[in-house]
Write a structure and sequence with these properties.
This protein has about 230 residues and is an alpha+beta fold. It is built from 9 helices and 10 strands. It has a single domain, classed as GAF domain (Beta-Lactamase, 2-Layer Sandwich).
């Protein structure tokens, strides 16, 4: 794990001075990834969720206003040629990983996204999350990356650490606002064996400077392990 983690951090453009939690947390996540889906009920409620309304431009989320139409996660996965069994296992296990990561890091919002094809082109699609309702699909286009940390990471393969969201936005850097209370963010790529970005992990906090080296390391461990599952 140590060597894989070092290679990942290098590829993602991150540096950590002392890798201390990799082995233990990696074992904990590995055990979660082996969790067996017992019943259809365990995953059914995870396949549909509420999303914010979008503004007239179709880009910006309207804060505190939910769409009348929930997002159907199963539909987009079927569109990408997943069968029912694959969908259930993937979504169930990703939610288990997300819950452990959310608990360990203590973030206020945690999400795992996978690169999928949509009717309008490739996008990062949210498969598991904890926190308030948020946008599901982030188009992987240069135009949309001007508005989004997620799309920026998805296109570049480089992690983005935002220590102060207010300052970040004032500097004109990409950021997608759906919750004005968020103060810091960590967005990290998930790579395939060929170093292609196949997903991301996004973490957000109500505190500035929240993501220290230990939290970044734990998120990196999750990205390394998820590379084999996505």
């Amino acid at each position: 794990m140590q060597e894989k983690l070092k290679n990942y951090l290098k590829d993602a453009g991150l540096q950590i001075s002392n890798l201390e939690v990799a082995e233990k947390f990696g074992n904990d996540l590995g055990a979660v990834l082996e969790t067996v889906l017992n019943t259809q009920e365990d995953v059914e409620k995870l396949l549909t969720y509420q999303v914010p309304k979008l503004g007239e431009d179709g880009i910006v989320s309207i804060i505190d206003e939910l769409s009348d139409t929930p997002y159907k996660l199963k539909k987009i996965l079927l569109y990408n040629n997943f069968n029912d069994e694959e969908i259930n296992k993937l979504v169930y296990k990703l939610n288990k990983v997300m819950e452990l990561l959310h608990s360990e890091i203590g973030s206020d919002w945690t999400g795992i996204y996978k690169k999928l094809n949509t009717e309008t082109g490739p996008a990062l699609v949210k498969l598991a999350y904890k926190g308030i309702a948020s946008r599901v699909e982030f188009p992987l286009t240069k135009e949309f990356s001007k508005h989004s940390t997620n799309s920026t990471v998805g296109l570049s393969g480089k992690a983005v650490l935002v220590t102060n969201v207010g300052k970040h936005r004032q500097e004109g850097k990409p950021y997608y606002t759906y919750d004005e209370k968020i103060k810091s963010e960590l967005c990290m790529p998930i790579f395939s064996k060929d170093k292609e970005v196949i997903g991301i992990i996004n973490l957000e906090s109500l505190q500035e400077n929240f993501f220290d080296e230990e939290k970044i390391e734990k998120a990196a461990v999750a990205c390394v392990l998820l590379s084999e599952k996505l």
